[in-house]
Amino acid sequence: MLLFTLTMTVSLLLSGCSSEASDSGQSGKSSDGATKLTLWTFVEQHAKFYKYMADEWNKKHPDKKIELQATTYPYDDMHNKLLLSLQSGVGAPDIADIEISRFSNFLKGKPQLVELNDIVEPVKDKIVQSRLNIYSKDGKYYGIDFHVGATVIYYNKELLGKAGVDPNKIITWEDFKEAGKKVVSATGKPMITIETNDLWSYWPLIVQQGSDFYGKDGNVTLDNEINVKTLEFLKQLLDEKIAKAAPGGGHHTEEYYGFMNKGGAASVVMPMWYMGRFTDYMPDLKGKMIIRPMPRWTADGNRSAGMGGTGTAITNQCKNVKLAKEFLAFAKLSREGNIQIWKQLGFDPIRWDVWDDPALKEPNKYTEYFGKDIFNTLMSVKNEINSPTITENTPKMNQLVVQSVLYKVLKEGSLSPKQALKNVAKEMKKQ
Amino acid sequence: MENYHLNYSINTQPVPQKKKIRRNILFSQKIAPYIFVSPFIISFLVFFLYPSISTIIMSFQEVLPGETRFIGLQNYKKLLNPHFYAALRNTTIYTIWTLIILIPLPLVLAVILNSKVIPGRNFFRSAYFIPALTSTIVVGVIFRLIFGELESSPANMLMKALGLHAQQWTMHWGTGMFLMVFLASWKWLGVNILYFLSGLQNIPKELYESAEMDGAGVFTKFFRITLPLLKPVTIYVLTISIFGGFRMYEESFVFWQNQSPGDIGLTLVGYIYQEGFMNNDMGFGSAIGIVLLAIVLVINLIQLKFTGAFKKEG
């Protein structure tokens, strides 16, 4: 009886563990000689992309075939599972997608990810440099991004036309404000929407000016002059009714999609990867939206900023690091992979040397929606794309900027821009 | 020794040595009980005691892969910040609201549903219970849509029909608290009705009959018989409600996914999640967990002492 109970308990425990292990699937050889690689992601389309690239890989390398098991988990689930399996040393996949705002969690302490310098170095000069730094620690690269995330401004040319505004003549943010006044008086619609529950209306604007929440040395610069002025500018736009707080709090809510789809506002500032949200959730705006570089702050200021991202990493629990690296390089660093990233995912790939490739001008759902000049716009701002500075405390910083700065200043109006930024800067300096 | 003889006398046939020992273990009055409780003990040790002790240890550590080290009371010192206070405040107010709603209301409804004169009472019993069977997350998605921000959301249409202003439900502290309490009330009402119903079935009918003979009315019967005799059930419901209130997480998660603006929906468990997983600070998360445990323990002990639950034991 005692034996029975013990066996039951032990087998229960073991089966719990072993099913976990087979879930994550420690790599090994499958029956047809292909090497099994497991991959976790939090976006269904990413999984599809990897599977496509795995098939391509197998066609080219029949001698070292891989069998890719890509699993999609919900965002939070995947990051938590990955964090725990890396902390405990068992159950992690070979390859994993890690979103930028969580990436620094995985670099804390001794990184449990594999250094990728040997696959990055050969193509380093063809990649938008700032996209590599955000996933690095002490000069070692741990993640490879899908896209640059160049921030642009999406104009509704129909609304601008009604107000007689030419989007190509909007050069600076001052011009933008003046044009906004015209649009509001002519159409009754706001010129732009501003996120109060997310960062995409604020972060790009300060990174664009070379500022950030953290300085390059890792010190908190949240309450510097540029940041205060930029937030004051946003508040002013809202106060003068040129801008409207995004319905639902952000540009990724059902309320917002519905609002915008009906021609709710004349423009929105978002990174390139937001194109997919237009094509999928705002079908009525097809042919009405155009993509332009962001307005400048000064006469020679930058017109974009690289925002968001997903770093693909190889974990230290991977048994075939060499093959995993080769595959990752093929999928995300090769010309071919980068072209597929545009074709399948609609992202602006990190290798700028493919941006003028004819393959990127081929018609797809994005060119049908926004017109054919998408990459001309991107080429024109190629050297103006800063990326944010990421530190160990970035997840917490971002959370506080949203909850205690943007919400309190732009929505509640309970604090002045300066005061709110000072408060959070003070709290984060203590970390 | 006594057992040994007993066994031996029953088994007239001589048993091989090994078998005999195994039998002896099974029939031994000293060992057998331990065997029967062992599944619980083992799972308790593995899934409860071990994690609990780990949590206590981790709350004094900075937990990072390969670099875990003890940092004394630093995690507890970090607790003194406005976010923790906001979480504590939200959780406490939420718990108080659920107590105010989820004890008297189910009690009254249970009495009504228990009365024989109500038509279709079996239908209502099941209707009230169905919400408890649904997943909070699924319901939350629906609630999130009902209480959308646009003027055309169902809740805002209702507000306008009532002559009130449309609300941005998930954007303000008051309406946010209302959403959480409303979701919890909707979901847990049926369960508490069930507890009270089972309590009511245990009250002997004779008591009511004799009270009626003495001329007691409906309200006298309710306050003099039903309420006092339901006291054990009420204490039980109170205890689990306090516990449930403080461990609340999903009700907040479904509306804000742990990113509530200005901490309006932050709860203690949500704060553990935020610090432990989202910010990879397991040590701090553990410290919050330990403090939460202490709070719930103290409150429940006070409440149990106050309601006299300990007296019956003695």
Automatic annotation (TrEMBL), chain A:
Any Pfam family the entry gives: SBP_bac_1
Keywords: Cell membrane, Lipoprotein, Membrane, Palmitate, Signal
Signal peptide: 1-21
Domain of life of the source: Bacteria
PANTHER family: ARABINOSE-BINDING PROTEIN-RELATED, POLYGALACTURONAN_RHAMNOGALACTURONAN-BINDING PROTEIN YTCQ
Stated name of the protein: L-arabinose ABC transporter substrate-binding protein
Gene name of this polypeptide: araN
UniProtKB/TrEMBL annotation, chain B:
Segments passing through the bilayer: 31-50, 94-115, 127-147, 177-197, 229-249, 282-302
Gene Ontology BP terms: transmembrane transport
Family matches, as Pfam families: BPD_transp_1 (PF00528)
Membrane topology: Multi-pass membrane protein
Annotated keywords: Cell membrane, Membrane, Transmembrane, Transmembrane helix, Transport
Keyword Membrane applies: yes
Localization: Cell membrane
Domain ABC transmembrane type-1: 88-303
InterPro entries per the UniProt record, alphabetical: MetI-like, MetI-like_sf, UgpAE/MalFG_permease
Major localization class: membrane
Gene3D superfamilies in the record: MetI-like
Entry GO terms, CC: plasma membrane
Record family assignment: Belongs to the binding-protein-dependent transport system permease family.
Protein name: L-arabinose ABC transporter permease protein
Organism for this UniProt entry: Parageobacillus caldoxylosilyticus NBRC 107762
Gene: araP
